[in-house]
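ARCHIVE CARD
SHELF: 3
SLOT: left
DATA:
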Amino acid sequence: MGKPTGFLEFGRRGPQYRPVPVRIRDWHEVYETQSDAELAEQGARCMDCGIPFCMQGCPLGNRIPVFNDRVYRSQWATAAEQLFSTNNFPEFTGRLCPAPCESACVLGISDDPVTIERIEYEVAEHAFANGFDVAAQTPPETGKHVAIVGSGPAGLAAAAQLRSAGHAVSVFERSDAVGGLLRYGIPEFKLEKRILDRRLQVMRASGITFHTNVHVGSAAMPLSQLQRDHDAVLLAIGSTRPRLIAVDGSHLAGVMPAMTYLEAANRAVQGGVSSQINAEGRHVVILGGGDTGADCLGTAHRQGAASITQIEIMERPPETRPSDQPWPTMARLFKTTSAHEEGGERVFSTETLEFVGESKVREIVVKNRETNEIERLSADLVLIAAGFVGPELEELGLNTAELRTARETLKVDDQWQLHDVGGPSPVYACGDAVRGQSLIVWAIAEGRSAASAIDAHLTPATSRLAAPVTPYMLSW
């Protein structure tokens, strides 16, 4: 423990946001940098608890007290060694994870928790800036070949782990660029794509090969072909079927899933052109109060929307932890993101009744669930950010009841393997395709776990990959 009284001497202090009038004029990340001295104080707040519940709150089991202490002591290389040993991509989770570790921080019982997520971010950035190891060294080749379908965080984590065990790894992505939702689903102001490309460069240098514009399940690349060409296949295809709102007018132009809008915006930013689906000068209504809705909100601000209203069907969450969501659970609390600070109106306990218009939407009819009051709002662009309902299995030719759970996800055994698939090599699955829509930290943890199971199958005598979670730890 770096400083036994640190949590008494220093308050929680995260990075400052760049001024709103400045940041909404560009697509760069929203935070100012923190000094190493400030970060050392935040690391000193860690209490080095006898039972580090933060580690239990983290699906990856990151050794949080260890790297907090090393940051306090300015031992960045050792901090990086500890962090990268359990998390392949802390540069992603340090930006995108909602930090269940902080909800489980013991200090959070009576004070503000340690800024674990931001410390993780800084450890990763210091590692890249100073040339520390950011990936495991590759051992001698095993002669085994693994195909991974999907290049989101689960697929990338599995690829990195399998390559670190000496297996040849090929990743197949149906889009025109690698990264899955990291590439086209997360706005630039939350994850600049240079950060993703920096990691992909490391992965390519390790020997991982990436293939884009490959639709596995099509006539040109059936799943059986991957099985014939590889010793194992892993499906990390995500949960990409959007949950829609089936009310009158849902067919109108201008009503669309949030991801359709975000992908168009991300492609425009990365290509340096105007988005084909643009909020400029339009009255935007976002249906959904979660992170995806906030991503739409920040994007619409930067595109110059005339007005933005974000509607949530649930009641407004409390400011403090309620009694039915006790520590160390991840409580549902009222959250203000950088996008909310930039403007727009937030409405809770409100249900969508109808979209109104002729060929294009022009109004939305909603009802307040507490007062039963009905209201009509101007709406030129309606973005449905209500989550996802499962993977697109039909595209892979996997449209059979035996392969599905009751939640419309892929059914795997305790070694992440699919059965009733047939073919010359085993097929595994992990991530949102198995769990359903979830957190990036769970995707990485499950990618690592599936890689461990595949490694144990391919080279049982030399298997050495740790498995942090099993498919049945769905409520942890």
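SLOT: right
DATA:
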Amino acid sequence: MLSLKPLNTLAHKDPEGPITLDSRKAGPGVIFVASKGATPGSKDGHDFVTQAISNGCTGLILERTDLDIPTHIPVWLAKNSRIAAAILAEKAAGYPSKKLNLCGVTGTNGKTTVTFLLASIVSAYGRKAGVLGTLGAGPLDNLQYFGFTTPEAENLSAYLADMHAQGFEQVAIEVSSHALATHRVDGLVFKAAAFTNLSQDHLDFHGDLESYLKAKTRLFTELLPKDGVAILPETRLACHSLGEGRPLLTWGYTPKADIEASEIQPNDQGINFKLRIKNQTADIKSPLFGRFNIDNMLCAAGLAYATGIPIKAIAAGLTHAVIPKGRLERISFQKPAVFVDFAHTPDALKQTLQTLREICEGRLILVFGCGGDRDRSKRPQMTQIAANHADLVYITLDNPRHEDPQQIIADMAPLPDMRVILDRKQAIEEAILKANPSDIILIAGKGHETTQQIGDVYRPFDDAQIAHEILLHRHPNP
């Protein structure tokens, strides 16, 4: 609920029209929303009020009353400016989330894949479907990239309004823990929401795993309407806490789950299994690999079923799914087999390596690094997982950002038999050229990304493209 207190006589009613949290965009007709920093190191929006006024903003929403504001500008006081921004942004955009079958997906891993799977299912049913998340917004074959998993509220509602204007009927949106903690999605109305999983990530932002979980669960405990359907893993926490007081569908691998996978058969083309939703069943032949992708398919099936899509269309969508770039993506069918994956958390790396081990006839070779300016505590965990599940490990750079690469490597604590090559291209090249035909190579951490950030510079770098070029060099006449 929007709760604003007028601070002068000009603010005699609630704000109307476009809002922005960026003072540079706060021109005539736009209301500037100033928010305190999300973390101790974040910038305080109140420091930019003067700039917004200079740019000609139409009004101000503040969390502080100690600022000297000209008398000709309406000013409102908000207990939480970011909540106000989300609600007002949705209002200014014409409430697009209410006009779409909007489905939210949160969790540590799998969000992008679940949204793509859901869009594939919705398309198979004949509805115009889109996604909004890490890879961009729009239809699966023409995404508009914006650089965030979940954009700021003003941009988020604008994207949804544009998608509705283009005739989209259903949209699957990735809801990150950052977005939930900073209230970017507080103005949206969800038809259904799914929780994929929880493991360690983003502790540099949240501080600890408990705060991280609390941010994730806001989607269910505070934002999902009472008639919105919760799609949750078959666990006691999920079923008895997050799903309380609303429609609930559970997914898992036992007959107690509403959505169940059984008779699982992995193969070198993907994975086959029997899908059950309530009392109906269908056979699935999926191009995806791994148990964790069955989790993702069950999540997507739950969201589809919650929005009125029958199991026949769900099966068709899963069988002919569009796979997001950089999610256990095989580069070519030449040997050695090379896969690129976004796995950048301990749990994701472990599951991806376990999945490839099932189909690996030779050595399992891993090329990976850890990102700079991010959770340092997971770095040695990643190295230990690499040691436990790969036969040969190359440690290299992965977006060092503003950290000293040597310090990142030291934090990772490489074992003596691991190869440390800071140049990521050189590490990938050596791994591919020295591999045996029966080996499998996993290049992990960057997935879909097409740049490498070093300091403030973004240099072109695409793991898939580089691996493809090296494979062509190894096989000049395929």
